[in-house]
Amino acid sequence: MISKKVVLIGKYGVGKTSLIQQFVHQRFSEKYLTTIGVKIDKKTVNIDGTELNMLIWDIAGESTNTKIPKSYHLGAHGAIYVFDLTRPSTYENIVSELNNLKKLISNVPIQLVGNKSDLLDEKNIHQIINSLPLEISFLTSAKTGKNVESMFSALGKALLK
Amino acid sequence: MRESDTFKKLTQLILEEEREAREKLENRVEVIDQNLNEREKLEPRIAPILSDQVVYLQKKFPELFGPAITASIKNQIKDSKDEVVEALYPIMGKMVKKYILKEIELLSERIDQKIEEAFSWDNWVNFVKAKVFGIKQGDMILKDAMEPVIQEVFIIEQHSGMLIGSYSRVTSVDQDMVAGMLTAIKSFAKDTFSIEDQELETIEYENYKIVIKNFPRFYIAVVISGIVSKVFLNRLDDLILDFVDKVINQRSPKAEADFIEEEFSENLNDYFIKLNQYDK
Predict the structure, then answer these.
(1) Which residue of A has its CA nearest to B196?
(2) For a pLDDT cut of 90, what percent of chain B falls above it?
(3) Are residues B189 and B204 in the same domain?
(4) pLDDT tens for each residue of B75-95
(5) Distance in angstroms (rounded) separating the CA atoms of residues B220 and A71
(6) Between the CA atoms of B57, B59, B63 and B64, what dihedral angle is there, to the nearest 10 degrees?
(7) A1-54: per-residue pLDDT in tens?
(8) Which residue of A has its CA nearest to B164?
(9) Which domain, by its residues, includes B138?
(10) Are B187 and A42 a contacting pair at CB < 8 A?
(11) What is the pLDDT of residues B12-27, one digit of tens each?
(12) Chain A interface includes B190 (CB < 8 A)
């Protein structure tokens, strides 16, 4: 079976852990528990007949006074950068954040994901999308499960290319 | 005689010598041409020169080509540093270990000597047992006190934490996740304490010890239960170095770029079951 390492990155509280919980265990909790360091989950998916073992590294979000070890990112085959659609501070430096990420893991597929889409209406979401300098890969909701599966599947396909 | 005949005769006389010279020259050219184009004729003439050149090159080889070869090897090593270290590591390790092992043997002898000098009842019993069974008394005391057993072995890719191979007596937890978490712990220690050139080598619990042996592109983590003695660790070290040298470094060129999990797992079973059986 093919195994690939995927890292989830983004500021604290954007819903990285919740996205993984929804994808791996199909559950969501309103309770917020900050991730300390890193948490690793695994899910085997079938991509067009090929079994893919996804080792998902849920890396704790960086806040102003905590720095995350950069070596957690090393050797990743793919990445998901998550931001919170309701908190501009989580996406206002998105270009430089992604450039920094690309320095650590070059030439790997990266999905740019706007999470918590259930908290905003269509109009607000469109405004945010238009204001961003980069194209968003997926708008997700870890709470309702919207686009979570398809976002991971799309990354899985890119990993197998 | 007419004038034209006289001229003809004169021409013949003058050119006769030249014609002969030309014929000689033609013959000579033909011989040279044969000498050059027919191998069997050329060989005896050139062979001595070539042989002189070979001797000259042999003598002057280091002087003529040394710098270029050294530069090329230097570049090769520089470009494939990891591969070179990986290939040399087990050999160097074995050499160093042989020396250390000798020192340990000496130490063991000294310990035996000390034990022999002790007068406790237990020591006397052990002494008698040791004599009866023909085992060193020191070894017997150590063996009584512990029973180290290899529970699990993981070969894990550095940085990414991907599992390359594993051996397990009991399959309890997800081995992919264990490999990932061990790598995360290693990364955490390295980044947090800024220990760039050093690596985490052991993690200890009460009855368990995780021994980590680092190589440039991967590391091997061995989970051992029981009390782990230096002698056992030494034997384990030998086994790991041997495994890396004979199994991992000997893999096919096809598998060179990517590690194939199944390939190593099977070999790990053979190697580490052996060590467990040896110790029982």
Answers:
(1) A71
(2) 7
(3) yes
(4) 888 788 777 777 777 777 777
(5) 19
(6) 0
(7) 888 999 999 998 999 999 999 999 888 877 777 777 788 999 999 998 999 999
(8) A3
(9) 80-145
(10) no
(11) 877 887 888 889 999 9
(12) yes
Is residue B107 in some structural domain?
Answer: yes
Residues B176 and B190 in one domain: yes
Strand partners, B175: none
Inter-chain CB proximity A70 and B190 less than 8 Å: no
Residue B210, in any domain of the structure: yes
Nearest Cα neighbor of A36 from B105, B55, B188 is B188
Q: Is residue B75 part of a domain?
A: no
Domains contained in chain B, number: 3
Distance between CA atoms of A66 and A74, rounded to whole angstroms?
19
CATH class of A2-160: alpha beta
Q: What is the pLDDT of residues B186-237, one digit of tens each?
A: 888 877 776 667 788 888 887 788 999 998 888 999 998 887 777 788 888 8
| A3/B163 CB distance under 8 A | yes
CB contact under 8 A, B191 and A42: no
Residue B235 falls inside a structural domain? yes
Task: List CB contacts of A24: < 8 A, sequence separation 6 or more.
Answer: A41, A42, A43, A56
